[in-house]
Amino acid sequence: MRELGVLCSAIIIILYIQPILCSDTCSPEVPVHAAEGENVTLQINETEVKEISWLLGGHHIVTTKPGKPVIIKDRKLKQRLQGTDQGSLEIIDVYLEDQGEYSATVFKENNNDCVQHFRVNVYPKLLNEDIEIKSTVSGKEPCNVTLTCAVNRSDVTIFWSSQSESNTVIRDHTLTLYNVHPNNTYSCTAENPAIKTSRSIKPWIFCLEDTATYSFNLAGSHPIWTPVLVIMMFIVGPVLYS
Q1: Residue 186, Cβ neighbours under 10 Å: how many?
Q2: Which residue in 59, 117, 228, 236 has its CB near the most CB atoms, within 10 A?
Q3: Bond from prior residue into 69 cis (ω within 30 degrees of 0)
Q4: pLDDT tens, 142-196?
Q5: Do strands 40-42 and 89-91 pair parallel, antiparallel, or not at all (unpaired)?
């Protein structure tokens, strides 16, 4: 009897999961890239849809039906899941925790059910203030500048761009400029599959700063300012004591 009970249970389980196991794939897995705080739509491009059962990491989170209210299964997502007129799923204000493997079992009127898989990747916000540009000036006439662009993130690609690419050497995040022109502007761009932001700069400003610094440092405090103070005393002194 025990063996018969186990056999019956196995048959029931097989019959229960068989429709899911035998469902065709609607289309290849769809990668979805989003920035934190954006709205994301997991689009189902099927016809004759009755309802769609959505799973995240194997956990049933919601059921959608074309043109009808969604049935939320995960209370934590209650305020952030919506359905579309076609039964697709919209995630409002995505968090980093929302990323993962989503699967949608599409039940159809004609019984040609299928499963659609999505891979959702969520990236932290990226602002142009996150881009840091450092400079090193060599030479004065002409002025040569090396710019280094950095972002304290591992999920971004960094590159330089400019309307004028002459006399430039780009190595990794470093841009070397020879004989810098006062009017040229260069942009450092950081991007990932979901976000792209830039920060622009005119390298000539570093040439001006370096010239001023170089003059003061080269002369020192006494060689420049002592003669000047002596001359001012000769000019102002008689006026004060007259």
Answers
A1: 23
A2: 117
A3: no
A4: 899 999 999 988 889 998 988 666 556 566 789 898 998 888 899 999 999 999 9
A5: antiparallel
- Which domains are present in the chain? 22-123 (2.60.40.10), 128-228 (2.60.40.10)
Q: Which of 220, 169, 112 is nearest to 186 (CA)?
A: 169
What is the distance between the alpha carbons of residues 237 and 234, in angstroms, rounded to a whole number? 6
| Residue 189: HSE in the Cβ half-sphere, 13 Å Cα cutoff | 10
Residues facing residue 170 across a β-bridge: 175
β-strands 24-25, 114-123: how paired? parallel
What predicted TM-score, i.e. pTM, was given to this entire model? 0.67
Q: Is the dihedral of CA 162, 163, 169, 170 positive or negative?
A: positive
**CA 197 from chain center: how many Å?**
8
Please name the amino acid found at residue 6: V
Per residue, the 3-state secondary structure of the chain, as one string, reads: CHHHHHHHHHHHHHHHHHHHHHCEECCCCEEEEEECCCCEEECCCCCCEEEEEEEECCEEEEEEECCEEEEECCHHHCCCEEECCCCCEEECCCCHHHCEEEEEEEEECCCCCEEEEEEEEEECCCCHHHEEEEEEEECCCCCEEEEEEEECCCCCEEEEEECCCCCEEEECCEEEECCCCCCCCEEEEEECCCCEEEEEECCHHHHHHHHHHHHHHHHCHHHHHHHHHHHHHHHHHHHHHC
Backbone φ and ψ of 186, nearest 5°? -125, 145
For the CA atoms of 57, 59, 61, 66, what is the dihedral angle to 10 degrees?
A: 80
